[in-house]
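Dear Dr. L.,

I hope this message finds you well. Following up on our conversation about the binding site, I have prepared a predicted three-dimensional model of the protein together with magnesium ion. For your records, I am including the exact sequence and ligand specification that went into the calculation, followed by the C-alpha cells. Please feel free to forward this to your student if that is useful.
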Amino acid sequence: MVLNEKINVRAVLFDYDDTIMDVSEARNYARQVIAYELSSITNFDQDHILGVIKDVEIRMESVGQFDRRIWFKEVAKALNVELSIDEINKLVRVYWDSWRLRSRLFPDVMPTLSELRRCGFRLGIVTNTDGEPGLKRGRIRRDGIDEFFDLIVVAGDDTKYVKPHPEPFIRALHILGMPGNEVIYIGDRVSTDVPGPKAVGMYVGIIKRYNSLNTGDINDNINPKPDFIINSLFELLRILECL
Ligand SMILES: [Mg+2]
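The resulting structure of the complex is given below.
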C-alpha cells in the first residue's frame, strides 16, 4: 500500500495482543489446557471440546465480550454440562496462567519503542479489556513494558465502549491533548483496529504478523481503509523518518 501523503505525527499508539505481544502460542496453549481440564470432568474428548471453545471464542469476540467466565459458561452450555462458579473461576485462572506462560514480545518491539522515544514521540497503548477490570493492565505490567508508555487506555475498563468504537481513541486524544491528525495507531486487525482511530482523524497502520493475517480482511471493499500496511515495526521507523 502506497502512502500518498507525508505523515507528520507526534504520538504513536499501539494495539496490544498480536501487535506488541506474540500471543499466537498463548492462545492455542490456553485453549488446549481448558480442553484438557474439561475433558477430565466430562465425557467429551479434547478435540471436540477444542472445537466448541473456538466457536464460542469467535462468537464472543464478535460481540465484544471478553470475559472468560462468560466464555466458559457458554462452552459448558454447548457441551450440556453443569459447572459450579468455583469450577468456572478455576478455569479462568488456569486459562490466564497458561496464556501468560506462552506469550512473548515480538522481537521488533523493544528496539522500535526505544527509537521512537529517542525521536521524541509520545507512546501509548489502546487495547480492549480482558473482560475483568484490571486484568489487562496487570498483564501489561507483568509483561514489563508499561514504563515505555505515556498512556495506556484499556477499552471496556477505562471506557464504556470497546474497539472498534471510537470512544477509547477519544480518551487517548484527551490524555495526549492532541488532535487526531497528530497521532498514528498501529494494530493487526482491520475490523477492530481501523474504524475507531479513523473516526477521530488518526492515521492507521496495519501490521501483518505471523506472515498470515487475515489478508482477506484487506480488500477494496474495506471502509475505512488503513493508511498503510507493514510487515514489521521497523518499517514504521522509516515511515515516521525516525532513523
Ligand atoms: Mg490485536
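In brief: Residues 148 and 190 are 25 Å apart (CA to CA).

With kind regards,
A. P.
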